[in-house]
Amino acid sequence: MDEYEKIRQRKREEYRKRHRAQVRRKQLISNGIVIGVIILIIATIIIVGALRGKKAKQEEVKAEVTSTLYNPIQPKLDVQLLTPNPYSRPQKALEKVNGIVVHYTANPGTSARQNRDYFNGLAETKKTKASSHFVIGLEGEIVQCIPCNEISYASNNRNSDTISIECCIEDETGKFNDSTYQSLIELTTWLMGRYDLSADDVIRHYDVTGKKCPLYFVEHEDAWEQFHKDLDTYIEENGVPKEEASQN
Fold it and tell me: Which Pfam families does the entry link to (predicted)?
């Protein structure tokens, strides 16, 4: 083998070595990327699982609170029942209560009594069919319009299995003032205990038909979520064990 051939052979060998080194580097990089992706997927699964577990635990705690405690105190009610009529008090039996529906009056500045009288006046005007079991006023007063064992004309296809609560508002935002909100908490938690319901059984008119009612709770989902939290907090702080109640 002459000198020229030796040089060519040496160069070919050096090329093969460089090529093998490049291939190994590419393989290492590729393997590293694959391993990194796998680790990222595993970490994501762990994090998502932990978050779901935390949420499930929170829901479990809520369920435990509302299943073992209840608010036994009936708020002060101004019972002003509507005159029986086909337009606002048909006197149809409400055989089972599966939920509570929150509404707003959509007429700023009016009182609970004025809204009650409007429902009652439908017997004469015959404009529409509308009513509610309760109306909460701007000063926190609660007017009862319909007995809880009768249906109201408030929640469309859920009239047959829900209690309805109308809330008065001060302005076009539809936000409940503090007095109205506090009475809503007290009335709702009392009804929850009376019918063995949880906060999940408290819904908006919007959840039944898509109507923006109660407006503020529809446009501010965080306020609606806070309302549910406030229900559970009120029961936790003021509730009594159901076992004690059954023994008394």
Answer: Amidase_2
Q: Which CATH architecture has domain 78-247?
A: 3-Layer(aba) Sandwich (3.40)
pLDDT digits (tens, 9 = 90+) for 173-182: 999 999 999 9
Instruction: Give pLDDT tens digits for 32-42.
Output: 787 878 888 88
User: What is the pTM for the complete model shown?
Assistant: 0.73
H/E element, 109: none
Give me the residue spans of the domains in the chain: 1-70, 78-247
HSE-CB at 213 with a 13 A cutoff on CA atoms is 20
- Are 213 and 204 spatial neighbours (Cβ–Cβ below 8 Å)? yes
In what helix (H) or strand (E) does residue 137 lie, and over which residues does it extend?
none
Q: Give Cα 69 to chain centroid, integer Å.
A: 20
- Ranges of H-type helices in 69-177: 112-125
Residue 122 in tokens: 């439908």
Can you tell me the distance from the alpha carbon of 134 to that of 159, in angstroms, rounded to the nearest whole number? Answer: 14
